[in-house]
C-alpha cells in the first residue's frame, strides 16, 4: 500500500533529506523533521517558500504529482508588495509571458490575510511606505520560482509564499514542521 506524507515545510528548509552545501554552515533539511525510511519528495518547494510538500514511497504516484504533463493544480497564498488591482489579477488569470515562455492561465484572487496563518521566523521585512496584500494563486505547472516570477511580472513582487494545496491534498491545519500520513488505496 503506497504511503503519502503531507508535510508543512517551514521557511528556510531544503526540500531534500541531505544538504550538499557547505559543511561549515549546514542548512535544515527534511531529515530534521521526518524520520520515515524510503519516502521521497513528490515535487519541490523552494527553500524560501513554505507550506505543503508531499512525500511518497510510490514512484508512479511521485511522477503523477510532480510531472507537469499531469497538470495537477497547486494553490499558493502569496503576500505581495502593493495591492494588485483587477487588471493585475486578470493578467495572472490569462497567463503571463515570462523569459521561458507564456504560463498557462491561473486562478487568481485577492483576499485578506488569513486569520489562521502562523508567523514566519524570520518575519517578512516591513516597509511603512509600501503596503502589502495577499493573493491566492492556483497554477497547473511548476516552473522554477514560477509564482514569484508571475507576481513580479504584474508589478507585485512576492514577499512570502505558502503552498496550501496540491491536487486533492491540503495543509488542513498542519503547523510548520508537522506532518501526517495519508493511507492510499
What does this structure look like?
The protein is α+β, with helices and mostly antiparallel strands and 185 residues long. The protein folds into 2 domains: 1-70 and 168-185, 2-Layer Sandwich (Alpha-Beta Plaits), CATH 3.30.70; 73-166, Alpha-L RNA-binding motif (Alpha-Beta Plaits, 2-Layer Sandwich). It has helices spanning 59-66, 86-94, 146-153, and strands spanning 3-9, 40-41, 50-56, 74-81, 97-98, 101-102, 107-111, 132-139, 158-166, 169-170, 179-183. Strands 1, 2, 3, 4, 7, 8, 9, 10 and 11 form a 9-stranded mixed beta sheet that branches. Strands 5-6 form a two-stranded antiparallel ribbon. The longest helix has 9 residues, at 86-94. It is globular and about 45 Å long. The relative contact order is 0.26.
Q: Please tell me what the overall shape is.
A: globular
- The SSE order reads EEEHEHEEEEHEEE
Number of strands: 11
The structural class is alpha+beta
β-strand amount: 25-35%
Tally of alpha and pi helices: 3
* Total tally of structural domains: 2
The parts where pLDDT drops under 50 for at least 5 residues are none
CATH superfamily of the largest domain: Alpha-L RNA-binding motif
Topology:
Elements (H helix, E strand, L loop, with lengths): L2 E7 L30 E2 L8 E7 L2 H8 L7 E8 L4 H9 L2 E2 L2 E2 L4 E5 L20 E8 L6 H8 L4 E9 L2 E2 L8 E5 L2
Parallel strand pairs: 3-9
Antiparallel strand pairs: 1-3, 1-11, 2-3, 4-8, 4-9, 5-6, 7-8, 9-10
Amino acid at each position: 500500500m503506497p504511503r503519502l506524507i503531507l508535510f508543512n515545510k517551514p521557511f528556510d528548509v531544503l526540500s531534500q533529506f541531505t544538504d550538499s552545501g557547505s559543511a561549515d554552515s549546514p542548512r535544515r533539511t527534511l531529515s530534521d523533521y521526518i524520520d520515515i525510511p524510503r519516502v521521497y519528495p513528490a515535487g519541490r518547494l523552494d527553500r524560501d517558500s513554505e507550506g505543503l510538500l508531499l512525500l511518497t514511497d510510490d514512484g508512479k504516484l511521485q511522477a503523477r504529482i510532480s510531472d507537469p504533463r499531469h497538470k495537477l493544480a497547486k494553490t499558493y497564498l502569496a503576500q505581495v508588495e502593493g495591492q494588485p488591482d483587477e487588471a493585475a489579477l486578470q493578467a495572472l488569470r490569462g497567463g503571463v509571458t515570462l523569459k521561458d515562455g507564456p504560463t498557462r492561465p491561473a486562478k487568481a484572487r485577492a483576499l485578506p490575510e488569513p486569520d489562521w496563518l502562523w508567523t514566519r521566523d524570520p518575519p517578512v521585512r516591513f516597509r511603512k511606505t509600501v503596503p502589502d496584500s495577499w493573493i491566492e494563486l492556483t497554477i497547473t505547472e511548476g516552473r522554477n520560482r514560477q509564482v514569484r516570477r508571475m507576481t513580479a511580472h504584474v508589478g507585485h513582487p512576492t514577499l512570502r509564499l505558502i503552498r496550501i494545496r496540491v491536487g486533492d491534498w491540503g495543509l488542513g491545519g498542519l503547523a510548520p514542521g508537522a506532518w501526517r500520513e495519508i493511507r492510499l488505496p
